[in-house]
Amino acid sequence: LSKTIEEFKAESVLKINNIDTDIAGLKIRMTSAGDKIGTIYKDEIIRLEHSKTLLLTKLEEFKDEGEDKWADFKNEFLNDLQGFNKAIKDFVENFKKQ
Description:
It contains three helices and no strands. The protein has helices at residues 5-33, 35-61, 67-97. The mean pLDDT is 83.
């Protein structure tokens, strides 16, 4: 069953905002890890937060221009979201190794 654009947007915003919890956890770990490690990962956290903002903006700015454009947008957005989630997972894995 195909979701409406509004349903998709609402679900996607929830998924993206849930990532805030992950980012907050990373910030806490970074702070407790000490200056050297904290500095290394500070820029990465800034990049992750920027990517999150870009995803939310992309979602917000999408206008319904027909089924073809919607399908293309949805596939591209889900791919971007998957990449973002992978970036966070990779960051956590790299951090654990420090």
